[in-house]
Amino acid sequence: MTGILAFIVVFGVLVTVHEFGHMFFAKRAGIMCPEFAIGMGPKIFSYKYNDTQYTVRLLPIGGYVRMASKDMEVNPLNAGMRINIKLNQNDEITHILLDDKHNFQHVEEIEVVDSDISERMYVTGLKLNDNSEATYYFSDECYFVENSELERIAPLSGRFESKSVWQRFLTLFAGPLFNFLLAFVLFTILFYIQGKPVDEPIVGTVMEDTPAAEINLEEGDRIRSIDGTEVDSWSHMTQLIQEGEGNPQELMIESGEESRTATLEPTVESTELPDGTVQERLIIGVGRDFEDGVIAPVWWGIEETVSSMSLIFELVVNMIGTIFAGTFSFDMLNGPVGIYKVTETVASQGILVLMNFTALLSVNLGIMNLLPIPALDGGRILFVLYEGIFRRPLNRKVELNIQLIGVLFVLVIMVLVTWNDIKTFFL
């Protein structure tokens, strides 16, 4: 149960922050956002505020912000359909009443002859009171009304394609950007709570009933050398212990102003990974020393975020390289099932470990979404940059076909990765 709750919270936070980034910059640019959704599939919760429907959907496999655009507008008006319209003083339509479940007065009933809500924004109809034909244009704030619900019709000025290249670029880039900002916030909070691990070979904690406790290692002791090799960092000390292959090792220990030697024999720690395999490593039973600060954790948070971005970017590049080298395996990827199993294991280690894991996942989500795949933010950014460079948009039909191929590619990859996760963890 803990694993399920942890997965839902982690997934919800990552997707919400990512999609909020898109919506925040979209609304700043004046782009209408009819829906902000967490999850996919059937709605299980919805709330409308400021022309945006906030929904939580059943399947935890993503989320989206539906931005107004020409291709997203669905016209419910058909020729021969009878509707009522509410006009303003300029004879512009403010409300199109699709049924009789309303309280509007002074409306005009027409029979639709023609309509366009994508470009020209008008309705041509026959007035039922005198059988004359008239054309009415939409006001900037115009609504469909059905079942007493109002759904705003996006004006041309409130659509994604009407905005500048810079505004569209920021709107698309904002999702990954907010993931990086989330990672920074989480890393910074962690540094404020527990401090920053010191890379010097200084003992911070000593666990009971371990090789370190047996030789009386204490907090503040510095490991000077192992088997005659001078130790220059914590990671170097860890490396030397692993290279000792479990054999007794002689440590030179500095305690205050005194130095002493002690023989220590590491023990083997076995950890079961989410896929069921067991990983073994040599330990001596000590933890790092930590340093604290008032302002420093903010800077450490920036450093850790940048370092994580660099590491994950390098891993992604190497993974892409394996495709061309013919050594690619789906074991390199984790889908929702794999992420759930890893989250379950991480959650069992405590809230701080889970926070660190969430920060790394957030960086990973940001990096992956910037890949130049048409269905992802990175692919859409490429289309916007093309328009900015060549001063004209890519042929619409070509762009739609490329995006369709991208969506199919991502769906196929998701299915294959999910199946691979199921085989790994459950079969």
From TrEMBL:
Cofactor requirements of the protein: Zn(2+)
Lineage: superkingdom: Bacteria
Topological category with respect to the lipid bilayer: Single-pass membrane protein; Multi-pass membrane protein
Protein keywords: Hydrolase, Membrane, Metal-binding, Metalloprotease, Protease, Transmembrane, Transmembrane helix, Zinc
InterPro entries per record: PDZ, PDZ_6, PDZ_sf, Pept_M50_Zn, Peptidase_M50
CDD domains assigned to the protein according to its UniProt record, in alphabetical order: cpPDZ_EcRseP-like (cd23081), S2P-M50_PDZ_RseP-like (cd06163)
Documented EC number(s): 3.4.24.-
Domain PDZ residue range list: 187-257
Protein family (similarity comment): Belongs to the peptidase M50B family.
Protein's recorded name: Zinc metalloprotease
Organism: Jeotgalicoccus nanhaiensis
